[in-house]
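Running this now, will post back.
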Amino acid sequence: MKIKVKEVTTKKELREFVHFPNELYKDNPYYVPQIESMDRDTLTPSKNHAFEVCEGKYWLAYDEQDKIVGRVAGIVNHRYNEKVGEKTCRFGWIDFIDNRDVSEALMNTVEAYALEKGMEKVCGPLGFLEFDAAGILVDGFDRLPTAYGKYNDPYYEYHLWSMGYRKDVDFVEYLINVPDVFPERYARAAKIVAEKYQLHEAPISNRKDIDPYLNGVFRCLNSAYSKLHGFTELSPGQCEDLGKQFLSNINVDYLSIILDGNNQVVAFGVALPSLSKALQKAKGRMFPFGWYHMLKALKKNDTIDLLLIAIDEHYQNKGVNAMIFNKIAKGIVKNGIKYIESTRELEDNSQVQNLWHYFEHDLVKRARTYIKPLKEQKHENKSAE
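Update: finished.
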């Protein structure tokens, strides 16, 4: 197949870039569309503070009939590269039909871009920041993704492997069955930890009560995640973007902010009602009715997605996660939640995974990022401009 790869340079092409997977998987019962307007904002430099430290390009692949058959982004996160002393180009937002000519044309384009930028390897799928969807689904194709994951068909892994990409890291997701009665050990552990380290729960009864703690939450996040794979310190602008993304959906029943004796944030955890089925009904659009499905899901749900647990590095491995989970557990009981689904976490993140030790739980999904070293070579891209 003769493939043309074209850089996205217009608003129309960006709309097509964002819409492509929603078209590719429109008949798949396990695919969860993202809200296209939000995706466009993420990819627009003037609307995403990640571009303070990142640069990138996006491409669409067309077949001989000028039909879109694939997409990919190439991203350089300069701050992360400086932090770890590497020269890595990320690839992300990758989707394509099951055709090797298409996937090779797309990845050859990314690799050429990486070499042009002086990079020495390509890694992904990754976004601009840690909080963008990462990884290709390699297990759990018969499960509905969380709203913060991403679905793809099984052939993606084969295509990348055949082009020389090998495993970098795995992310896992767990489904936890909520028991009728929570084990008393969590409440006891929370009380012991609180007394030992003079910690207490921030008094939050509505969203406005969160505001005084937001700066502390993001300081804690930067501290807790500083050594995690792929993470770079969030700037004030990036914190603002992240706050806008999540705050409007926050249910304070599923929020825990832990303070020390000086009322400084040392840990927090947040979960949200599952939006996966609502996003399927919205079909990628907030209007005219997408907002209604989202609002309904936020108010009435039997499943929550655990988004973040962050503990300041000075309080890690001291049992503070028991305090966080004990608070969120009260909201779970109050609202009749039956299932907790963890969003993608690194497979060796034992601190979070130990929370489920006394619950019935299953590892239900696995996603993988890949890496490939580059050599100075001329790519024979199969595109024909």
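The domain at 179-337 is CATH 3.40.630 (Aminopeptidase). More later if anyone needs it.
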